[in-house]
Specification:
single chain, alpha+beta, 22% helix
């Protein structure tokens, strides 16, 4: 029932003035209230930006994010925090000691050179590695209620690894190469000549030892004067002849896959040993009727070039069966995450439609994440491969805290604890962690337990107006040591029985300090007022690892797009204020 209007008595000027004064005051109060409401609604909007905070997607709204990130690194921090080229992990000044068939050469070459520890190396290898990774994170966040939200992350990763191996460029010279007698008949003929003349000289001296045992002929004087030395020479020459045939190969004996490089210190030592033996035969037998007792020298190998090195790694003969070093790229889904976030307390208000917070406003939230092992592991047969994930299950708990310092400035913090579940994977187990290229016979399924993870992230945010925000980022990442377990008995490609211990794959703990910033443009506030067609945020983000231990020195640039899509009516629109 409408209230009756007040009517002043006619003719009362004072009553009429009082009536007009009351009406004017009412209009002024209404206008002031309307303006105050309009200012509150038009105040600068909270633009969240790409770094994580405790906010949820509004109830009934699906928040979709697409963030392509471009990451690069060509250096890493070693266990002492010192910077080193990434290629140092595939660099060696003495390449070859761990390759199959190489250790077996040591015995024969010790006989051929007289050196107990002959130098066995394919030379030096210096590798340059530069990794470029394009990672696109697709995120889905849905507000189930004002306190509960669901989230999912699907990463897609494309790796490009630029690898430039340089063989025998400085450092110790190569002493081993592919045995030429396995491919060239001329090399076999050279080896046959050396072994045949050496065998003939050995047989001749052996016969003379038997003849001179009961003879005083002048031709036996040298032998009878030093029968011990002559007997030792027969034994040494027979051993050298057998070692020559076994190492270099002849028409009747298959040589080793590798042989001393022509002109190398190792080949020179073999030639010197043959020259010494020839001189000793002359001392006991005198000069032969023609030439020398030992003629020629065995065919030496050529040092490995780029093609030879690729064959050494990937060829079936050597048993390594690894992917040769070189540029490559591959792409695959990373480790997918599924989770839920629960809002514990919030005096900020709903992020999409509320004005700026008052100083001292607090928001607290917790989340649980289940990470699937959907990524692609780095390949065990590739020394420079970079995977797209760990390919094992993780459980992660997160805590969020946002505090408003002022209406336009607040700080978000995130604390993450990740428990990495043990699993089993196929790895090649070397004898030493410094072995670069591990043969295929050493590939076994080992027990793996990756170290647990702790991260602390702090992101200060400044919002100058409705559309823009600027945010910094500091993140500390710590990861425990990785452990591998298992003992295995296998047979090497050269027939040698091996006992493998997977603990040689263990790695130390890691930590890194990351700094970054982002600049964000948002139309969410304009959309709530009806002046923008789409509610979205666009951000540029940059970060780099400033220091660490056992981690890549990574630099990242990216662009983030985030869309708000209501699923139950237009809940983002600010309802019209009815006139009062």
């Amino acid at each position: 029932m409408p209230l009756p209007k007040y009517t002043a008595p006619k003719g009362s000027f004072k009553a009429q003035c009082a009536t007009h004064k009351v009406a004017w005051i009412r209009r002024l109060l209404a206008t002031t209230a309307l303006l105050a409401g309009s200012v509150a609604q038009a105040g600068a909007q909270r633009v969240t930006g790409p770094w994580e905070d405790g906010s949820l997607a509004p109830r009934g709204v699906l928040r979709i994010g697409i963030t392509p990130r471009f990451e690069q690194w060509k250096e890493r921090y070693d266990a002492n925090g010192e910077r080193q080229p990434l290629g140092a992990l595939a660099t060696s000044d003495n390449l070859g000691a761990a390759f199959p068939f190489v250790p077996a050469l040591a015995g024969n070459l010790a006989i051929l050179t007289g050196n107990v520890l002959p130098p066995l190396t394919f030379g030096s290898l210096h590798t340059r590695v530069d990794v470029t990774q394009a990672r696109t994170d697709i995120t889905f966040e849905y507000g189930v209620s004002t306190r509960l939200g669901l989230q999912a992350l699907i990463p897609y990763v494309k790796n490009r690894v630029h690898v430039l191996p340089v063989l025998n460029d400085g450092g110790p010279g190569a002493t081993l190469g592919f045995n030429p007698s396995l491919e060239f008949a001329g090399a076999l003929q050279r080896n046959d000549l050396v072994v045949t003349t050496l065998t003939t000289a050995t047989s001749t001296l052996s016969s003379e030892l038997a003849r001179c045992a009961t003879s005083t002929d002048a031709s036996c004087a040298a032998i009878n004067a030093n029968r011990t030395g002559a007997t030792a020479l027969v034994q040494q020459a027979a051993a050298v002849s057998a070692a020559l045939a076994s190492t270099y190969g002849t028409s009747t004996a298959l040589g080793a896959p590798y042989a001393p490089v022509a002109g190398s210190a190792l080949q020179s030592a073999v030639d010197a040993r043959l020259t010494t033996l020839n001189s000793q035969f002359r001392a006991f037998l005198g000069a032969p009727t023609a030439g020398e007792w030992i003629t020629g020298s065995p065919a030496g190998a050529a040092p490995l070039g780029a093609e030879g090195f690729a064959e050494l790694l990937g060829g079936e003969t050597g048993g390594v069966l690894a992917r040769p070093l070189g540029d490559y790229e591959h792409s695959h889904v990373g480790d997918i995450e599924l989770g839920a976030k629960f809002l514990l307390a919030d005096t900020f208000g709903p992020v999409a439609i509320s004005p700026l917070p008052r100083p001292g406003a607090v928001r607290l939230a917790v989340a649980g994440v289940y990470r699937l092992g959907t990524g692609q592991l780095d390949l065990p047969e590739d020394a420079t491969d970079v995977g797209t994930g760990d390919r094992q299950v993780d459980l992660e708990a997160r805590g969020y805290g946002d505090v408003a310092i002022g209406p336009r400035f607040w700080v978000s913090s995130v604390l993450r604890f990740g428990i990495q579940r043990p699993d089993r994977i196929v790895r090649r187990v070397p004898d030493s962690s410094t072995d670069l290229f591990v043969e295929a016979a050493r590939a076994v399924e080992v027990d793996r337990d990756l170290g647990d993870i702790m991260e602390l992230e702090v992101a200060p945010r400044y919002v100058p107006n409705d559309e823009f925000s600027i945010a910094g980022l500091y993140r500390y990442h710590s990861k425990g040591a990785d452990s591998f377990d298992g003992t295995f008995n296998v047979t090497s490609a050269d027939g040698t029985p091996l006992t493998l211990d997977a603990s040689v794959l263990n790695t130390g703990s890691q930590n890194e300090h990351l700094l970054g910033f982002s600049i964000t443009y948002s139309t969410v506030r304009a959309y709530t007022r009806g002046s923008a067609k789409w509610p979205l945020e666009v951000s540029y983000l940059h970060s780099n690892v400033s220091r660490g231990e056992g981690v890549p020195r990574l630099q990242m640039n990216g662009i983030s797009f985030r869309f708000y899509r209501p699923t139950k009516g237009n809940v983002l629109r600010t309802p019209a204020t009815p006139p009062r």
